[in-house]
Amino acid sequence: MAAPADPNAHPLQDTLDKTSAVAADIQSAASQVGVIGAVLAQELPDELQVGEVAQALEQTGELEHKLAESAETLADVTAALEHETQKRHEADDKLERSRAQVKELSTQVQQLPDKTG
């Protein structure tokens, strides 16, 4: 299950954390389904692995594959989100530095002697 979000986190970081947790949950579910399918296939005698039982075993394998693919896709999305989050932090830092420079320059301009008079 996904961990609770940090209320002080940046919204993008919160989304990233949730995405990472969901990816881990999906990967875990894929592994569990794989184990279940393998145990059933090994423990059920071949003569019982027909009809609906055979279909259920096949669908278990397909579900494992779909979950693994979804986890991989979500991991790719998470990596892209991490990259965008980093870019956002860098842009925020740059903006903050620019604002500080503007404030400093504004203060310096206000302190210049008035030569218009």
What does this structure look like?
- The chain has helices at 11-43, 51-111.
- The N and C termini lie far apart (72 Å).
- Helix 1 packs antiparallel against helix 2 (51-111).
- By secondary structure, it is an all-alpha fold.
- It has two helices and no strands.
- It has a domain at 11-82.
- The mean pLDDT is 87.
If helices are DSSP runs of H or I spanning 4 or more residues, what is the number of helices?
A: 2
- The topology string of helices and strands comes to HH
User: How many β-strand stretches?
Assistant: 0
Mean pLDDT: 87
Radius of gyration computed on alpha carbons: 28 Å
Question: What gross morphology would you assign?
Answer: rod-shaped
Helix content: over 70%
Q: Quick one: biggest sheet?
A: none
Judged by helices, strands and strand pairing, the structural class is mainly alpha
Which segments are poorly predicted (pLDDT under 50) over 5 or more consecutive residues? none
First-residue to last-residue Cα separation: 72 Å
- β-strand percent reads under 5%
